[in-house]
Sequence to fold (363 residues):
Amino acid sequence: MILKRSGLVLASIPTFLFGAWSAAALAIDGPCRGHAATALVVAWIVLLLGSCFAMRTFFRALVVILLLNLAVATWWLGIEPSNDRRWITENERAPVVEFDGDIVHIRNVRDFLWRSDTDFTPRWEDRTFDLSTIRAVDIFFSNWGPPKIEHTIMSWEFDDGRHLAISIETRKEVGEEYSALLGFFRQFELFYAVADEHDVIGVRTNVRGEHVRLYRLSAPPDRARLLLVDYLEHIARLNDKPRWYNALTQNCTTTIVQHVRHFDATMDWDWRLIANGSADSLIYMRGGLDTSIPFDELRRRSDITAAAQAAGDDENFSTLIRRSLPRMTAAGGAGGPRPTLGSAGPTVKTRAIPGSPAASRSQ
Fold:
């Protein structure tokens, strides 16, 4: 009897936490706003508590509460994202990707001239890249406030010296501000900002006062290409089927891992992918950065904040921010292992976009 009661008490904890989540989902994502939303949440709590007192046994009460929570979860999972909203200017145009073998054409590449967060000159460009000329891939870490949470941005370098940066972030509507709490619910669509580094990095260092580090990943060009193709194919799919951003499962870092796992199923999870302010130490530990110098020194020398501020609007922004970075002496550092984006493991097949290199390989 004691064990049975203890089991019911333990079962009640996640059930009532589920109820608390349901209340938050109704308040944040529900059909009502303001006082009406408050009334809806109060009614929900009354319904849950009433179920507890109406049932003859505690077990039956837990079952009813669980079913009510599942009903809310089913409704919540059915909320559809959209590409058709009144977006803020920098999220107004989604990138459009067209493949022609190794050649990829990208419309709506962002290259704004930023003077402040509210004073800027919008510039959208069409750019063409040859995927066979990818030289390397880099990763940026931008600290925007919390010590253990940072924003990650990937950037690919091509043989002609150009760089293509892609930032995975929230797509905000006019009047919306990012909230970590709201990011756990269905408030923001997922957005891939395809941009010039001068834009997506410069706005962080020179306008928002963020501190940014830049690392050259040790992935060889073929791995860098696989990652970019997977990004671009996903961007193409988002234009037809939008997805929700989620601060835990679909954020700027966990989504990168999902991309890597599409061609490398051995890429495993680590707590530092959530507290991603330490993700660079994880990549270093796994041999993904230059291990020929100690990590603390590499981290210090990889801070490009001052260099980006000095570069300003210079057309050679990407070159200038890399001028003082440590150069990799070998893949994985002198005498180290040859690392990649993940390790050479089983490949996970994904649906390829017609005309893309992945589609060509699957034919």
User: Anything to note?
Assistant: The first strand starts at residue 96 and ends at 100.
